[in-house]
Amino acid sequence: MQSQNNPSHTPRRTGMLFPVFSMRRKGDLGIGDTTSVRQCIDWLSAYDVGFLQLLPINVSGSDNSPYSAISSIALDFIYLDMAQIPELSQDDVDTVRTELAGEWLESEKVDYTMVRKAKSQLLRLAYERYQQDSTDSSEFKAFMKQEADWLVPYCKYRWLMEEAGGAEGSEDWTSWPKEFNTPRKALSYERKKDKVTDGGPRAVQEYYAWVQWHAFSQWRAVRNYADTTGMKLMGDIPIGVSNASADVFFEPQWFKEDWYGGAPPETVFKDDAFACKWGQNWGVPLYDWDALEDDKFSWWKRRITKLTDIFHIFRIDHILGFYRIYAFPWHPKKNAEFLELTPAEAKKLTFGELPHFYPRADDSMANKAQNLMDGDTYLKAILEAAKGYEVVGEDLGCVPDYVRPHLAELGIAGFKICHWETNMFGDAQQPHEHPHCAFATYATHDHPSIRSMWEELRQNIADGCEGSGDGLKIISQYADLPVMDADQYPAFNSVIKWALLESLLKSGASYAALMITDILDSRARINAPGTVGDHNWTYRVDWKLEDVPDEVSKEMGKLAVYTEYHDRIVEQHTDDSKNSPTSLKLSQNLATKTFN
After folding, report:
1. C-alpha to C-alpha distance for 327 and 321, rounded to whole angstroms
2. Gap between the Cα atoms of 101 and 26, Å rounded
3. So what's the pLDDT on residue 588?
4. What is the pLDDT of residue 269?
5. How far apart, in whole angstroms, are the C-alpha atoms of residue 403 and residue 471?
6. C-alpha angle 364/239/449, rounded to 5°?
7. DSSP-derived 3-state class of residue 344
8. Is the pTM of this model over 0.85?
9. How far is CA 4 from each of CA 12, 306, 312, 314, rounded to the nearest angstrom?
10. Rounded to 5 degrees, what are φ and ψ at 547?
């Protein structure tokens, strides 16, 4: 099977996962934004980091999860830099900062409620001025015309959310008033409102379109800026979309009714009784792949095309779902109802259905073959839409034996969680054994930092957990550290940290990524699966990108040395000006001094 992506031509790069919401700059409004991303590109480029990995930037729902978007395409306005909106001045931004002044502006966590309040206030002010003063709206009108197929339904959905109350949770159309809780009734309701409301629904919908125009304009400018530095932007595309989304409401033909995707039971989530018993129920509706295929996968191709407007590389979250996906016959809102039930009791509430792999389990050679054929068809459609762009597949969890060879044949780089990869003897797979077409890392956004990982494994040993020494043994083998008796491993320190990171950069994989928390020795989590609260998706670094602390710069200098030494090259596209990444690149001698 011929690869469409030519993975052998992909250079080896070092990358960093640094969510936009975690960035901090002078004058921001409590969260990172498109200007923060530009600054981050400059900062990382100076140290030969070749790609910046972001989490999804689509507009999210009230749970603030970037993996629970209310549109498969619309971008979240919380990442807009208000100073780039022509109708706003710095005085306007400063006035709102003063009016809404509080700890949230400099907090260690993102306060999404206040961020949305501040930015919504500024955007509505700007839009009023735009309506009054704009003499040339040709670009905006062209945007609306070009993007109408997804933009119109999205803007209607946002208007309906306002009609439903506009408060937290209003994106859930299943709780909307019966007057407009189906697409047909919503159309009738809109016509009625259009006749009796001054300005009508159209005025509200046009506001949301105007916001998207600015969002896409700013992000496309970020992409263009990255191109001048040689930096690659890596985006993320979730396997599913939220049930509470414009896509599911207005295009239900692409989704299965009353079936939701997730993952099978895993005892690793020991603090989540439901995940241990039933699995993870993400609440994303299953796709009707037959309907999508009959339409030549136009919905998926549209989604991918919009993603490639901004990103050079994109990661497909839970790519296993393209072959088969673990499915639940109830929405997550009912999880508590099922937690204590036996399978027999659960069947009584679901007309005899229990969670299972859909459309079929890998329980026979015939089923495996069919699942492989399905995945081949669906992923080739994705690759066709992504032609010329790099694709990474998050292939973690219960991985069928046919998936990784197939991804390699397609040229999709699968994940290599370094300390999870072992040989037939239970020993660590060595860095040079990683294939070129792979994405090597110690963690995703759902996992702890390397410091936390090491210390948690040491604590497991202290607590007497069975087999707890095996994890540190494998990590040590991978990083060429001494393998010790279980209770002899030292506390995490700089030697351990750089042994781990250098081994990562040694990997034969074309992509080697660390998290921002790894370089900072932080124990903070980006997300803890199976938990709900403001500890998820709210982490912010405690320094501004204009004022990176000296100790962080020293650590980045070490990263640059190892990146260069292990031939992870960044192709530069800047001039010789004093502020270019090329001129900022540390020399071997200067960087070596940071080790002292």
Report:
1. 10
2. 15
3. 39
4. 65
5. 25
6. 100
7. helix
8. yes
9. 19, 20, 16, 15
10. -130, 60
**Residues 6 or more apart in contact with residue 416 via CB below 8 angstroms:** 429, 434, 438, 439, 440, 441, 507, 509
Q: Residue 240: phi, psi to the nearest 5?
A: -125, 180
Tell me how many degrees the CA angle 112-113-116 measures, rounded to the nearest 5.
Answer: 80
Taking a C-beta distance cutoff of 8 angstroms, is the pair 87, 133 a contact? yes
CA distance to 1, 80, 314, 438, per residue, from 234 (Å): 26, 18, 5, 15
DSSP 402-466: THHHHHHHHTPEEEEEGGG-B-TTSPBPPGGGS-SSEEEES--TTS--HHHHHHHHHHHHHTT-T
Q: What is d(CA 197, CA 115) in angstroms, rounded to the nearest whole number?
A: 30
Spatial separation of the C-alpha atoms in residues 322 and 357, rounded to whole Å: 12
Q: What is the token pair recorded at 223?
A: 């992409």
Question: Which of 190, 247, 321 lies closest to 73, judged by CA?
Answer: 247
Kindly give the residue spans of alpha helices, DSSP state H, lying in 197-245.
200-229
User: Contact at 8 Å (CB) between 15 and 48?
Assistant: no
Decide the pairing of beta strands 313-316 and 390-393.
parallel
Round to whole Å and give the CA distance between 75 and 56.
Answer: 9
Phi/psi region, residue 567 (left: phi>0; alpha: psi -120 to 50; beta: rest), is: left
583 close to 576: Cβ distance less than 8 angstroms:
yes
Instruction: State the DSSP code for 323.
Output: T
Q: Establish how many alpha carbons lie within 13 A of residue 76's alpha carbon, considering only the half-sphere containing its beta carbon.
A: 26
CA 582-585-589 angle, 5° bins: 140
- Which residues, given as ranges, of the chain have pLDDT below 50? 1-4, 574-596
Q: And the tokens for 330? A: 């109830």
Contact 320/395 with Cβ under 8 angstroms? Answer: yes
Coil, helix or strand at residue 325? strand
Q: Could you tell me whether strands 255-263 and 325-328 are parallel, antiparallel, or unpaired per DSSP bridges? A: antiparallel
Q: Percent of the chain at pLDDT above 90?
A: 86
What is the spatial distance between Cα 511 and Cα 416, in angstroms, rounded to a whole number?
A: 10
Question: Which structure tokens are listed for 449?
Answer: 């930092």
Q: Quick one: which of 419, 442, 428, 573 has its CA closest to 517?
A: 442
CB atoms under 10 Å from CB of 546, counted, come to 11
Q: Are 390 and 10 in contact (CB under 8 A)?
A: yes
pLDDT, the chain, mean: 92
